[in-house]
């Protein structure tokens, strides 16, 4: 891809290499991936190594007890993996309401769903890896055993979580969180060493059993026992029944490029819907208030419809095909005016997270994401194991008529999404932006920066971002141009300037030159990101 030069200057330079590249939000994790690649692994082995290391070196965003998704390019074909777990079989709207909740709680044992991360590692290793899973997990085990010093952004979020949890996590079920992540009665400081022997033991057990212990062995028994003790719903039977799902990725063609996402239950559809709507409008112009306005309005419509309709595919009231159709995009584009609107759902036709990307010299590429959700997830840590459990169930609705209503064995609307770009059937490469509901908005902005303005990977990531917060409220970064913010305000947008960049996601990009095979990568300047190369 040829890159234009813009007045906008990145905080970092794009990184280039030939033999291999790993980009993620933590330098030690990126290095773990390159280490495994240099020891004979491919991009998929490197991604597993990096993902496992991230559970150790960035526990503020992900963990062994989270979910995962991947888009994998191998032998000129894109494969999709959905390793998000369902709600426990015994949970129900009635059971949750009987506990005194009128909506799904955010923390505790109730919102815990089946974790998909260990199964994702094992599945990717078995299907596409060159090395045993035990080799890929070695760096993560070493980091957990020997410890590592906290990086600046990691330390910032760790401390913020501790300050919040020390006042709200007062019941016995949360004690193991403090034992694990605040062992001396406080959060570790930036630059301070932290280790987790229990985490290391768990990773060893996962490595030795290729993940089976987590779902059918001693680790599953420990999870089951803790949940029973604290009146949780997740049981060993739920763990034993779980299997990751290989899925056909979905795409939208945006100005000659195919943008790929995982299909529902993930929210990647939102980015594709927004791109389809936006391309129906005027030609984008560099740093134009009109273009920003149309981008925001397209995203608002896509997000409103996504939240209304996306859940398990069989429970959706409208098909994926229709939401990605030209008919849908044209109808929604036709509702956009010169002024900011309060979006309403489409009228149906009658009838915390960590992201990483990796690539190798053989042409293999992977876009991978995993998360515990909302930082440390549920706040539940299984004693002595380092397993922090996710709280994905918090996104279920307790309204019986809602498509995403809670049901035992059902997967919820999911925020974490990996992205991938191709052109004319050839891989351009993996990309992603983590950060809850910022993710499809980040995907949209990275793709438009790349394709409309031919930005290199680092510039596309570093561009000031905006985020729709609901209604007419738009949050912009501190370095978002003031004249554009004022112009958008005159169009009716309620502009709010963020105090820092933490709300705008953290992304990575790797593109491949189709002629030379040279890799170019960018990493997020909003976090402790790194691009490791070989």
Automatic annotation (TrEMBL):
UniProt-listed Enzyme Commission number(s): 2.3.2.2, 3.4.19.13
Protein's recorded name: Gamma-glutamyltranspeptidase/glutathione hydrolase
Keywords: Acyltransferase, Hydrolase, Transferase
SUPFAM superfamilies in alphabetical order: N-terminal nucleophile aminohydrolases (Ntn hydrolases)
The keyword RNA-binding is assigned to this record: no
GO MF annotations, alphabetized: glutathione hydrolase activity; leukotriene C4 gamma-glutamyl transferase activity
Pfam annotation, one family: G_glu_transpept
Domain of life of the organism encoding this protein: Bacteria
Family matches, as PANTHER family: GAMMA-GLUTAMYLTRANSPEPTIDASE (AFU_ORTHOLOGUE AFUA_4G13580) (PTHR43881)
InterPro entries documented for this protein: GGT-like_enzyme, GGT_lsub, GGT_ssub_C, Ntn_hydrolases_N
């Amino acid at each position: 891809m040829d890159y234009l030069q813009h007045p906008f200057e990145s905080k970092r330079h794009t990184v280039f290499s030939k033999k291999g590249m790993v980009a993620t939000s933590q330098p030690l994790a990126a290095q773990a991936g390159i280490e495994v690649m240099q020891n004979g692994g491919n991009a998929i082995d490197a991604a597993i190594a990096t993902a496992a290391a991230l559970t150790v070196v960035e526990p503020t965003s992900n963990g062994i007890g989270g979910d995962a998704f991947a888009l994998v390019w191998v032998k000129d074909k894109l494969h999709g993996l959905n390793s998000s777990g369902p709600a426990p079989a015994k949970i129900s709207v009635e059971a949750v309401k009987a506990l005194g909740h009128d909506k799904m709680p955010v923390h505790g044992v109730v919102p815990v769903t089946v974790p998909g991360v260990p199964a994702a590692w094992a599945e990717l290793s078995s299907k596409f890896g060159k090395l045993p899973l035990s080799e890929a997990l070695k760096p993560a085990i070493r980091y957990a055993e020997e410890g590592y010093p906290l990086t600046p952004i990691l330390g910032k979020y760790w401390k913020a979580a501790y300050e919040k949890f020390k006042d709200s996590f007062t019941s016995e079920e949360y004690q193991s969180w403090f034992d694990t992540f605040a062992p001396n009665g406080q959060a570790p400081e930036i630059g301070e060493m932290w280790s987790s022997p229990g985490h290391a033991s768990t990773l060893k057990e996962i490595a030795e059993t290729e993940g089976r212990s987590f779902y059918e062995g001693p680790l599953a028994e420990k999870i089951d026992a803790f949940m029973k003790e604290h009146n949780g719903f997740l049981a060993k039977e739920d763990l034993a029944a779980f299997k990751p799902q290989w899925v056909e990725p979905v795409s939208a063609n945006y100005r000659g490029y195919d943008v790929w996402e995982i299909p529902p239950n993930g929210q990647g559809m939102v980015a594709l819907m927004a791109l389809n709507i936006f391309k129906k409008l005027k030609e984008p112009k560099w740093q134009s208030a009109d273009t920003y306005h149309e981008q925001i309005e397209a995203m608002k419509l896509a997000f409103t419809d996504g939240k209304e309709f996306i859940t398990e595919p069989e429970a959706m009231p409208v098909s994926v095909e229709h939401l990605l159709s030209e008919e849908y995009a044209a109808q929604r584009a036709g509702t956009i005016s010169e002024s900011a609107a309060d979006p309403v759902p489409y009228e149906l036709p009658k009838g915390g997270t960590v992201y990483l990307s990796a690539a190798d010299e053989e042409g293999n590429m992977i876009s991978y994401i995993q998360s515990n959700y909302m930082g440390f997830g549920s706040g539940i840590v299984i004693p002595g194991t380092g397993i922090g459990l996710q709280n994905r169930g918090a996104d279920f609705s307790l309204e019986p008529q809602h498509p995403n209503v809670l049901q035992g064995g059902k997967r919820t609307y999911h925020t974490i999404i990996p992205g991938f770009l191709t052109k004319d059937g050839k891989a351009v490469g993996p990309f992603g932006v983590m950060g809850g509901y910022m993710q499809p908005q980040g995907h949209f902005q990275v793709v438009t920066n790349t394709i409309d303005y031919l930005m290199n990977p680092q510039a596309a990531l570093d561009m000031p971002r905006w985020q729709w917060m609901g209604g007419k409220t738009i949050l912009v970064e501190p370095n978002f141009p003031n004249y554009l913010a004022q112009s958008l305000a005159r169009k009716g947008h309620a502009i709010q300037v963020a105090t820092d960049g933490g709300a705008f996601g953290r992304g990575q990009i790797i593109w491949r030159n189709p002629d030379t095979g040279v890799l170019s990568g960018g990493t997020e300047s909003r976090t402790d990101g790194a691009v490791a190369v070989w």
